[in-house]
Amino acid sequence: MFGQQPGKELKGQVVSDSLDVEGVYILNQNTNTAAVTTKEGYFLIEVNVNDTLFISAIQFIPKKIMVTNKMMDKGMVVISLEEKVTYLDKVVLTPYNLSGNLEKDVRDADIKPDINFYDVGIPGFKGIRKEKIVPLGEALNYGLITQIKLEALYKHISGYYKNLKTRRQWDEENKAVTRILNYFGHDFFINSYNLPKDDVYVFVLSCVVSTEIESYFYNQEYDLVIKTFEEVYNNLNEE
Q1: Domains in the chain, please, with CATH?
Q2: Nearest-CA neighbor of 213 among 229, 197, 201?
Q3: pLDDT digits (tens, 9 = 90+) for 39-90
Q4: CA distances (Å), 215 to each of 34, 141, 173, 228, in order?
Q5: Would you give the end-to-end CA distance of the chain in angstroms?
Q6: Are the beta carbons of 54 and 202 closer than 8 angstroms?
Q7: Taking each helix axis from N to C terminus, what angle separates 160-184 and 186-193, rounded to the nearest 10 degrees?
Q8: Which of 24, 4, 5 lies closest to 14 in space, CA to CA?
């Protein structure tokens, strides 16, 4: 499935009835090239007729489409994705004597203030902290309008916080890929799945962005990690 020369650039848009379509991963299984959708769900990827595109994101059911002559002539494809719903075997609800009045429940809650490191004589964190992403509700909160609130509101409107979240998400995904590769080694993927060395990273990344493999790995559930590798590999190679 690898090694084919790229052809024409195909523009596409991922759409969903209810979920955010930014950051969806588009993989051309034939050329092993990839793209990521914009805030509006648009992407651009090089394809040939009969190439297979694998579309995935943690919130959607993965989907595969084959590039047709009609798509190439039109130069545009719209891909509709379905939300991935996780069903729980058992849900236990524990009552906390809540009235349903949010303001009253918060006021009556026995919430203790946070304890600072220095309060107990322990040196605290002195490094460079990540920028706090102020919740939109806090930025819009009534009362004293401060410069900080105005700045936070502007950052929500301008999409700054959304881009920051997306960048941090990809940073974490790349870290997860690196840790998985360090644990299993490139040879494992080369020998087990007959992948060229240059394709190993993209394969593991596609696992991270479209499945729960990161959680399995950090919980040391390696049997589920291997099972996920097999499922993704089989999906990528289905005709």
Answers
A1: 1-86 (2.60.40.4130), 132-239 (no CATH)
A2: 229
A3: 899 999 999 999 999 888 878 888 999 999 999 998 899 999 988 876 555 5
A4: 23, 35, 11, 11
A5: 11
A6: no
A7: 80
A8: 24
